[in-house]
Design a protein that fits this description.
Length: about 140
């Protein structure tokens, strides 16, 4: 009976995360990526990393990067036709990609109140008829 109990406990230790004495998981984390940022860290970036949908973040950034090779498909011919540098549209896409990615991540780091303030500021400086129609400002 003692050996069966010991074997079942050892089996559970392999399945369930075992807490170490200091409260951390014995395996170094729970496998969700949270082990990169301690729960004791209360900075805005640490809170963002724990609450962000990482799969969605990766998917959006992947789509942004996929636009670079896709812009090679038609923009070369169009650039030649209108008489600009062959890689004109590709260079512009790449030039706007980095600031757009930084803006995307930066806005996602803002609190909900900060995002609301940014949205209201955008509506304020947006053209009057479009801003009023979209924001109700």
């Amino acid at each position: 009976m003692g050996d069966a109990f010991r074997d079942s406990v050892l089996t559970l230790e392999g399945i369930c995360p075992v807490k170490a004495a200091d409260g951390e998981h014995a395996g170094g984390g729970n496998g969700t990526g949270d082990e990169m940022v301690s729960r004791a860290d209360t900075s805005r970036l640490a809170e963002w990393w724990r609450t962000i949908d990482r799969l969605m973040l990766a998917a959006v950034l992947f789509l942004m990067l996929c636009g670079v090779p896709l812009s090679f498909a038609a923009s070369l011919a169009v650039a030649d036709r209108i008489g600009v540098d062959t890689f004109h549209f590709i260079k512009r896409h790449a030039a706007f990609l980095a600031p757009a990615a930084m803006l995307f991540v930066g806005v996602s780091i803002l609190s909900q109140a900060g995002q609301a303030r940014l949205f209201r500021a955008f509506c304020h400086f947006h053209p009057a008829d479009a801003g009023n129609a979209v924001c109700g400002c």
